[in-house]
Specification:
Blueprint lengths: L3 H59 L1
């Protein structure tokens, strides 16, 4: 005879996984997508900011 509490715990765990697995997966995917977007924006604009700063500082020195 199997312990009914163990069986109940096992069933509860399976139901919990089914219920929350999609939510957790979607949340992680959303966070990764946002981080990828922020990284791409930073990569594009930070290189431009560096170029602008170099130009701005070199113009001040010439004047």
């Amino acid at each position: 005879m199997e312990n009914s509490f163990k069986e109940l715990l096992k069933q509860d765990k399976q139901e919990f996984e089914k219920k929350h697995q999609k939510v957790v997966r979607d949340s992680i995917q959303s966070n990764l997508t946002m981080l990828k977007f922020v990284g791409e924006v930073a990569e594009v604009y930070l290189s431009r900011v560096k170029d602008v700063m170099v130009i701005a500082l070199s113009d001040k020195q010439k004047t």
